[in-house]
Amino acid sequence: MNILIWNCWGALNATFKNVVIDLVQLHSLAIMIVIETKVGDNRAKEIASQLPFDGAIVSSTIGLICGLWLLWDSSRVEIAKLSYTEHEIHVTISCSHTQPWLLSIVCANPRYAEQRLLWENLSTVASFHSFPWVIAGDFNEVLLNEDKFGGRNVNINRALKFQKCLNNYKMIDIGFSGPRYTLSNLRPLSQLI
């Protein structure tokens, strides 16, 4: 089963739909997770209905913050929604001949107080299941200065609290493929963050 997680930074771009169609065809996607869409509610549902998936859960946004979409092909996977907020979606996933597993998609608020709420919600989810668990998305927090480019140094107290969260849920960073830094904020490529 192929799953794609994309931090797209806006789904209103004119090319978004065509890129999704190409990605689905190229990678035979059963599930696509799109974070930081900056589009929620009815507009998100409208756009999602035009994509090559027949299942969708879309979160609300807070202004232009976050926006999570979980899209899937129901002929290949069965997804049951457990809960969701503006910053997280929790589901169980089943497909033929495999054990069900839990998927949590996160797009944390950059404010620490809001991040702590997300971490507490993860604790609640963790206490109610024994399935294998995948957590994907953007925690909007870094552990090391090497995890970011430029700007302020990492706040060591926040990093330690985030590390404690990761340890509590036995999370493992599986890394990435592609460029180490991808956020441009309209800066030249040499200054990606």
From TrEMBL:
SUPFAM superfamilies: DNase I-like
Record-annotated Endonuclease/exonuclease/phosphatase domain positions: 6-143
GO MF entry, a single one: catalytic activity
Family matches, as Gene3D superfamilies: Endonuclease/exonuclease/phosphatase (3.60.10.10)
Pfam families on file: Exo_endo_phos (PF03372)
InterPro entries, per the entry: Endo/exonu/phosph_ase_sf, Endo/exonuclease/phosphatase
Protein source organism: Quercus rubra
Name of this chain's protein: Endonuclease/exonuclease/phosphatase domain-containing protein
